[in-house]
């Protein structure tokens, strides 16, 4: 095999999201002097950590041929519950437990509706989105809950050596999810739920239990994201998480995970998260209206998929 053919195949193997990320880094570095500063790059990584916490379980959900539209609203509701419990009790442990519990309950409910009632994931999680968002607004009368203990904010603003805590959380969670998906029986079951459910049944595994576990994990991670949001704002806000589900789904799709046949990878989702964070940061620095960010993310997802599709056809 010639060296030229080897190089060509390697280039085709590079995912579209990696190409897109490199292009954005170069373009924004050239057109925006403030983009390449240490402070801005650190901020991009911290924003990526937020999104990665939700994108990791979203990857598993999509691998099962599912979807979770509720994570943003659930994160908003959990942030309200965290702030209220923290104010009422002054206990950091109680606040953390409340946030994770709220997320878990909604996730498990989503999984139960999908697994046992046969409700399509889009419909079930859209309904959960409405319930969570409505409860957030009712609990707060549309107002933020402020005055939470400083210990809660320390979960976000603290650091271990030179590393901000959100980056530490993201790194640890990525390691955990990588192990779950690629080194555990649970990961095998997750991929089988989207790619070969018959094999899962023949192996004596429960499809219903697997679906509930995946959605419960997604909800729990939404609750963890709520902890970070409440810490960053030093408050609970009823709409703080809205839009998070869009970015998470876009990051996973951008990273190459397909919505059928259980095909996808966590590294791709990580690259997708970084790409979206870089895009949003660059747009903000260029003073482009915030409303254009959502359209830009959507266009970027389409462009990356076109790149991957053409490369697949050329192989």
Plain-language structure description:
The chain is mostly helical and 315 residues long. Helix content is 77%, strand content 3%. The protein contains 14 helices and four strands. It has helices spanning 3-13, 16-31, 38-63, 71-89, 92-116, 121-140, 150-157, 165-183, 185-195, 197-202, 207-233, 244-254, 266-285, 291-314; strands at residues 145-146, 159-160, 163-164, 235-236. Strands 1-4 form a two-stranded antiparallel sheet. A two-stranded antiparallel sheet has the order 2-3. The longest helix has 27 residues, at 207-233. The radius of gyration is 20 Å and the shape is globular.
Task: Please summarize what this structure is.
With 315 residues, the chain is an all-alpha fold.
């Amino acid at each position: 095999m010639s060296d030229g053919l080897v190089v060509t195949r390697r280039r085709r193997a590079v995912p579209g999201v990696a190409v897109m990320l490199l292009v954005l880094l170069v373009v924004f570095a050239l057109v925006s002097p403030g983009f390449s500063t240490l402070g801005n790059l650190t901020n991009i990584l911290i924003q990526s950590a937020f999104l990665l916490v939700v994108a990791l379980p979203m990857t598993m959900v999509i691998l099962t041929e599912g979807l979770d539209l509720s994570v943003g609203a659930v994160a908003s509701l959990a942030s309200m519950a965290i702030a209220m419990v923290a104010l009422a009790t002054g206990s950091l442990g109680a606040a953390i437990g409340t946030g994770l519990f709220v997320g878990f309950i909604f996730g498990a409910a989503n999984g139960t509706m999908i697994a046992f009632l046969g409700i399509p994931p889009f419909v079930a999680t859209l309904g959960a989105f409405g319930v969570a968002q409505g409860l957030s607004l009712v609990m707060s009368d549309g107002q933020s809950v402020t005055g939470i203990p400083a210990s809660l904010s320390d979960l976000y603003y603290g650091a271990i050596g030179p590393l901000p805590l959100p980056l530490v959380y993201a790194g640890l969670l990525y390691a955990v999810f990588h192990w779950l998906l690629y080194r555990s029986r649970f990961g095998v079951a997750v991929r089988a739920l989207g790619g070969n459910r018959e094999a899962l049944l023949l192996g004596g595994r429960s499809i219903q239990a697997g679906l509930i576990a995946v959605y419960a994990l997604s909800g729990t991670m939404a609750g963890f994201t709520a902890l970070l949001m409440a810490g960053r704002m030093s408050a609970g806000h009823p709409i703080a998480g809205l839009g998070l589900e869009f970015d998470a789904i876009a990051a996973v799709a951008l990273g190459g995970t397909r919505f059928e046949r259980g095909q996808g990878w966590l590294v791709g989702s990580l690259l997708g998260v970084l790409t979206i964070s870089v895009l949003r940061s660059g747009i903000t620095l260029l003073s482009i209206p915030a409303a254009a960010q959502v359209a830009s993310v959507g266009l970027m997802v389409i462009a990356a998929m076109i790149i991957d599709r053409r490369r697949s056809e050329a192989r």
